[in-house]
Amino acid sequence: MIKPRLFRGFRDYPPEEMLPREKLIEHIKHIFHRYGFVPLETPAIEYVDVLLGKYGSEGEKLIYRLAYKDGNTLALRYDLTVPLARFYAMNYTHLPLPFRRYQIEKVWRAEHAQMTRGRFREFYQCDVDIVGAFPPLPDAELISLINDALSDIGFHRFIIKTSHRKFLPEFLRYAGIERPSELEVARVVDKLDRLGKEDVVIELEKLGLSARQIDKLFDILDISGEPDEVIDRLSSLLGERISGICGEMKRFFDMVSSFGVPKEKLVFDLSLMRGLDYYTGIVFEAYLPDFPDIGSLAGGGRYDNLVGLFMNRSVPATGTTIGVDRILTAMRRSEIVLKDEDVAKVFFALFDKGSVDYVLSIVSHLRREGIPVELAGKLCSLKENIQTAAKKNYRYLLIAGGDEKSKAVVAVRDLKTREQKEFTVSELVKWGKGLC
Amino acid sequence: MIKPRLFRGFRDYPPEEMLPREKLIEHIKHIFHRYGFVPLETPAIEYVDVLLGKYGSEGEKLIYRLAYKDGNTLALRYDLTVPLARFYAMNYTHLPLPFRRYQIEKVWRAEHAQMTRGRFREFYQCDVDIVGAFPPLPDAELISLINDALSDIGFHRFIIKTSHRKFLPEFLRYAGIERPSELEVARVVDKLDRLGKEDVVIELEKLGLSARQIDKLFDILDISGEPDEVIDRLSSLLGERISGICGEMKRFFDMVSSFGVPKEKLVFDLSLMRGLDYYTGIVFEAYLPDFPDIGSLAGGGRYDNLVGLFMNRSVPATGTTIGVDRILTAMRRSEIVLKDEDVAKVFFALFDKGSVDYVLSIVSHLRREGIPVELAGKLCSLKENIQTAAKKNYRYLLIAGGDEKSKAVVAVRDLKTREQKEFTVSELVKWGKGLC
Q1: Does the CB of B309 have a partner CB in chain A at under 8 Å?
Q2: Nearest residue of A to residue B362 by CA position?
Q3: pLDDT digits (tens, 9 = 90+) for B383-403
């Protein structure tokens, strides 16, 4: 016997998890369509060199390679953004500009699996990107999209934090920090939410920053308030050098507001950093303040240099990932349920040999009318049929034995109320349509 | 620069291919739901030993292995049936019986890629299976499902060939063939449709069969007609030994007919073999006689021993694969189009700086009303906006410059008829809803 088992960090999605997941993805797709995005899929397997040099050295270690040919040739994709850049570079001559695509597929990372904390080695990404358009209009449109998606699902209290990747070097310059690197400082600052200021200060000290440097850094990171206010205070501290970035942020906030995103949902958060190497401009993340431990439900930003790696020409781009798994967790905790799933509520019993043909023809008729019905898998006692239907959580049991066949009717038993009624076939169709 | 490229045998699915594909998959899912099937997904990566020993030696050579840990540990799945068996064995204690699941995901095979002939190394499988129920009821239900799926798509002329895996050893015994093995003979006979009888005879001779053996084999393979007739003639040739199998086929055909599958769609074809090692009972394949070169649109059968490999206990099972790619090819050739795709028909121009806020708020309003709209990616001349919309195949261009803003209207230009009309925002919403 072969022991049936899964590799650590991988999971099956059984039906009870697939049904809400499919419903959510369908919902998200509708929003994407409304915004004029079209679907794209790319292969799971890419050439290794297509993937390398984009995620940072920590990320690259997590790429699964194939043992096909030599192990340096092929690998499983790590995200959907690099494959998009590769696709764009291969097809840009006949793609309409700007190219707006979404992609919902699995990605693979050889992470240290922590399944109880929801860290898996295979997971869905749900990405939407706009390639070939300059900031800040597409960036603002993505904020509007995130706002629509989360509101429509039924989340009322959420915030979208935004910042700009080009601020950080200016912050470091202001604080007199030349080393360690931007990315090292960013990685520590990124933990502010999770660790709190005190611990972040300790970690910054470990990086070799002086108390004075850390104080000056927090002069800036502590700034908070309305976007306009933040921009004014930043400008007064950092002067002309950041006027370009501030102007872009200002126009961005104006557009986000024209799109109707409520002011209280938007936070200009200077400590927002985003991990991946390829971001170059406006970045953003959406959170539920009620469930800070879930992390960001959506996040993304501008990456104007990534596509250029494949075509020696700069191509502006921005995008966001919608965290399907995290949203499902948050929905469960908030007791939000999307519209009923399109699955069978009706189980048709099989217990009388003489009426099998009658049952089969009615099952078939109901299904052709669009009514979902599960037919019992075998002929057995009515009691056994009831047990099976109950175990499968069906509400209604349809019964057609010799009596019903001779009267050309079907009995419908409500397994909850235990009421039972007889219907002619046309009444049954009408009743069934009412269920859907 | 990194050269953007794809590994041979792999392909991107660009939007123009994704849209009909998604529509078809949605259609197939509806049919699955109607039959009471629920979705399952399993990981792309499985332990190698979970996959080996099920596909035959030819199949096993095509399994992609990972270079993770040692190359003998992990591999990409080859199909969705073996992962289902593995899942069932791991979860059977809490699965309702019979377990009816569908799974629509990609699989990977290191095939000799022939992309012009549609043979890729990564492709979708769309599988539906019933585990834990004996023949012939579930098998008949799958025939009904295939019939519904193909009819509903719009195919009128198709045939479903069926046979039984257990016939072959009896055929060989009748013909006095002891060697080569069943599977070798099956593989050659399977080519009858493609090569014709003459070439198949030559190949059988190459396998070492005598003229008399081949003649006797074709005494049986040449039998054709109504199911009842075929069964009678088979019984008279092979006698009692096949009465069990014939009885199962007879009950199967009766049930298929009770499900309302038209008689002329069903063929009892003794030369139908099906490639994979794991089949044990009734097998079937659906074809379009008008496009024989496309091959089978759906096919499957009973595999009562596969699940048992993972749990030392026999578990009856049957299933079918729906060939999404082949169906799409057949739809294109038959000029069948499924109901309109849910994508934007409306492109909103951006050409006047002073009315950007006005445009953004209307775009947002339309989308929240459920109307798909693509917003121009940048401010540019009206002419450029028209060119972009035309390149993206949009029918309607929405225009709101200073004039429209001051009048609180939006102009809608039909890019086909070149007519232009002005709408208030509420009229616009009404018009937009009429488009969907």
Answers
A1: yes
A2: A259
A3: 999 999 998 889 999 999 999
As a whole number of angstroms, the distance between CA B32 and CA B39 comes to: 9
* DSSP tag of A200: H
CA B385 to chain centre: 40
CATH of domain A15-165+223-334: 3.30.930.10
The hierarchical CATH code for the domain B346-435 is 3.40.50.800
Name the 3-class secondary structure at A30.
helix
Across the interface, which of B18, B138, B309 has its CB nearest the CB of A41?
B18
Amino acid at B98: P
Measure the N-to-C terminal CA separation of chain A; round to a whole number of Å: 44
* Residue B156 pLDDT > 60: yes
A317: nearest CA partner in chain B:
B377
List pLDDT tens digits, range B202-229: 999 999 999 999 999 999 999 988 899 9
Cross-chain residue pair A98–B377, CB shorter than 8 Å: yes
* A289 in contact with chain B, both atoms CB, cutoff 8 A: no
Among candidate residues A304, A61, A213, A1, the one with its CA nearest the CA of residue B90: A1
Pairing of strands A74-76, A45-47: antiparallel
| For chain B, domain boundaries | 15-165+223-333, 346-435
Q: What are φ and ψ of residue B100, in 5° steps?
A: -115, 105
- In this predicted structure, the answer to whether residue A25 has a pLDDT above a threshold of 60 is yes
Residue B15 in contact with partner chain A when CB distance is under 8 A: yes
Burial per residue of B88-117, b for 16 or more beta-carbon CB atoms within 10 angstroms, e otherwise: bbbebeebbebbbbbbbbbbbbbeebeeee
ipTM value, please give it. Answer: 0.90
Interface membership of B3 toward A (CB under 8 Å):
yes
Rounded Cα distance between A27 and A339, Å, is: 10
Question: Are the C-beta atoms of residues B122 and B8 closer than 8 Å to each other?
Answer: no
Q: Is A426 exposed, middle or buried (0-12, 13-18, 19+ CB in 10 A)?
A: exposed
User: For the segment A77-114, what is each residue's pLDDT rounded down to a tens digit?
Assistant: 999 999 999 999 999 999 988 999 999 999 999 988 77
Q: Are A15-165+223-334 and A346-435 the same fold in CATH?
A: no
Three-class secondary structure of residue A79 per DSSP: coil
CATH no. of B15-165+223-333: 3.30.930.10
Please name the residues in contact with A293: beta carbons below 8 A apart, sequence gap of 6 or more: none
